[in-house]
Amino acid sequence: MIGTVRNIRMVAGAIGALVMMSAPALAADIEGNWTTLSGETAAITACGSSFCITLKTGAHAGKQIGKLAPDGSGYKGTIVDPADDKEYSGSADVNGAVLTLKGCALIVFCKTQEWHRQ
């Protein structure tokens, strides 16, 4: 009897470990105000099932410059250069108070910026 209970617990523990290993990592919270590379404030807020990036300060204040959706442990979507309105495929990862944004044209021409949470 004791051996059976012990075996059930071992099997249950192994199943739990497998479920945890196979579960996708959740993206870190991207919502909030961020200081951009050029010093402006960008607000990232929920918009539907995605997150919209809107500049709050600077020459392009009020302009939406991106839309990202959770993708595993990060985010994927589009990033817009506010100076020329060109749209790029984008991705973002949050690590503590640092947001790393990457925008790419034709997959090979990419630029990366780090923003900091306010």
Work out the number of β strands: 8
Give the biggest beta sheet.
8 strands, antiparallel, barrel
Instruction: List the uncertain runs.
Output: 10-24
Number of domains: 1
Strand order of the largest sheet: 1-2-3-4-5-6-7-8
What fraction of the residues are assigned to beta strands by DSSP?
over 45%
Q: Quick one: overall form? A: globular
Order of helices and strands: HEEEEEEEE
CATH architecture: Beta Barrel
User: How many helices in DSSP terms?
Assistant: 1
Q: What oligomeric assembly is this protein in? A: single chain
Which CATH top level class fits?
Mainly Beta
Which structural class best describes the helix and strand composition?
alpha+beta
Radius of gyration: 20 Å
Would you give the CATH topology? Lipocalin
**What gap, in angstroms, lies between the N and C termini?**
58 Å
| Helical residues, percent | 10-25%
Mean pLDDT: 84
Question: What does this entry look like structurally?
Answer:
The protein is of the alpha+beta class. It has a single domain, classed as Lipocalin (Beta Barrel), CATH 2.40.128.520. It contains one helix and eight strands. The chain has one helix at 2-22; strands spanning 32-35, 41-47, 50-55, 64-71, 74-81, 86-95, 98-105, 109-117. The chain has an eight-stranded antiparallel barrel with strand order 1-2-3-4-5-6-7-8. The N and C termini lie far apart (58 Å). The relative contact order is 0.16. The model is unreliable at 10-24 (pLDDT under 50).
